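Translate sequence into structure tokens.
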Amino acid sequence: MNFKRSSGILLHPVSLPGAYGIGDLGSEAYKFIDFLAETEQKIWQTLPLGPTGYGNSPYACFSAFAGNPIMISPELLLKDKLLTRDDLKNTPEFNEEKVEYEKVLDFKYALFQKAFLNFKTNITRKEQARFHHFCDENHHWLHDYALFMSIKNHYEDLSKEKGKENNCKTWADWESDLVARKPSALRAVDDLIGERVLYQKFLQYQFFKQWHNLKLYANEKGIMIVGDIPIFVAYDSADVWSNPDLFQLDEETGLPLKVAGVPPDYFSETGQLWGNPLYDWETMSFRRFDWWVRRFSAMFSLVDIVRVDHFRGFEAFWSIPYGSENAINGEWVKAPGRELFHTLKSHFGELPVIAEDLGIITPEVEALRDEFAFPGMKVLQFAFSSDAEDAFLPHNHIKNCVVYSGTHDNDTSRGWFENSSTEKEREYFLNYTNSDGKDNSWTFIRMGMASVANTVIFPLQDLMSLGTESRMNMPSRTDGNWDWRYTPRMLTKKIKHNLKKLTDIYGRSGKSKTKETAKN
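Result follows.
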């Protein structure tokens, strides 16, 4: 699918400013959209929006369908009269530039409990009808998710009451009848913790209500939202628990038989062991990919364009025996990507998809991408190996691709030059760009803007010329990721002026000029 010539910004909502310790879907999100519109950007790209668990990674969510309640805006709950000003008076003092997740979670979930009580007590008939409509419309995933989260929280609370460590780390540690999803056990637990289930549905209702209003505002401003689908889902998720037949699991224990990762390469001698359960593609194909149709349908209701993470896994995936210490002893197994995307196309028409085609890419992967005309990704930080034929160098770009200075997994552009690049790469970068090396972030931005590629997207950190300390994720690090935030004063008038100027110069604003106007 060919996108119009445009530019945009990569920023996860948790990185927005705000008084409540984490970016949310309130006023600062609307101000960010205003900033995009003022600088003539056409795209806001986010990371996955699902509910995060251990490590706070948006790529390891409890559900492929649910939204992350931590992004719910307290100020919008106040506006809806679900909270009072007194409820917000004792807001703790939070770090403005880092998300303190545990502190934020304790504070926000206490607020959400108050909002839930007010919702039940004071709900109008009109709002009640909307809530029930939301629950009915999303029943195919919502009840299982709400039940899943409620059971998890129930076990956690029982452990705290007994002063013991919670031994139910995943759903496979629950009582056997719940693991097996026996109807009698599900009914019994639903009766026991039904109020918790309703609470989880309330949180999802609020998230989706706030997100859809925000997306509508963005679209009205001419801005498209790019969302992100991780190819795999977390083992400890409502998706795997409620659809065990769709995954390669042991029928008795519920544990995975094979897990996902990538093989050894230049960057890692032992490969990467991700640990996600692998799909049972034969069953999925037999069911005409109904789970994937629902997943993409849910995504297309949330965003305008979908970036598919680890796209190569739809052509072939690295299958690793469960229990392996690393990713060495895996094998490539073919996936029915062509069949899947034809099925999706029959449901949705032309698919507004960006293929994350980084890593070990074969001619077969490229053929799958090109058959559906999905634009691939070109990351400028990967370009400077001193090979003039490198596909990531701007003079080798094609129109139907998306150019990034870097992604959430990379260092910032300034950090790349100062810390992550080799001397050879730095030298080639300076020669290629004819740069003095003083503001490399904006050198990257100008280079991307000038590319023939239809679409270019920059992490917000690069606009601010921030260093390594502001990167979003370091894949080799187990903590300290996903917590970067900016403050309002960091988006200066100079940044706005320079971004708008380059957007106009390189024809990404969407403005059309006649020859007469251009001559004048």
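Note: Confidence is low (pLDDT under 50) at residues 514-520.
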